[in-house]
Amino acid sequence: MNFRLGFLTTLTVLASASVFAQGTPPVVDTTPKLAFGQMMKSGDKLVFAPCRDRSYATFEDVSNGQQVTKALNLVGLETGKKLYVEVLGILENSLLKASEINMARSEGRCQLPGGQEEVWRAAGNEPGWALVASPANEMVMLKRQGKPDISVPYAAFKTEAGVAQFEASKDNQKLAVRFDHKQCRDTMADAVYGWTATVNLNGQVLKGCAWQR
Is the distance from CB of 152 to CB of 167 less than 8 angstroms? Predict the structure, then answer.
């Protein structure tokens, strides 16, 4: 399942005018979409303010076992920190119902959606590394601390049963990427992500976190 990027103001979609004329109730799009914005705790309520928008919404966690709230608390929501968050959810009457988390970062700034420039990012520590999947640039690039960058031709990630995978080779460099849809904590970045990353470059395995763009 590939969750495409969407702003909070476009989460509710109405039927066409011709349908209204027939007296048919509005059709509401109940497909969850990624919402980007700042979140903070105000009294006993959670308030979400979408990026580049002066509106706000109250926040309700509808995930299994309150997994979204638990993830946000890992990076300081419960203690009063202001967070930058990306969650999968549905807007209903100024109430954002969040079902999954893509990423959250303490004191983080708003980020632009990746679009076709980037569809995935991943990163890890010890050793430090970062990966970007870019359809626009037709490549997947892996950067490693103190080593040359590696790039291979881009292809759409195969996603099934909560796993996204990619493999490609170029110039005797073989890159295999696997993202599991399990929450991943990066304590060095004070962030939490919706995917756990495993990257294999010529037999060298790198572990870290991933998130959609």
Answer: no
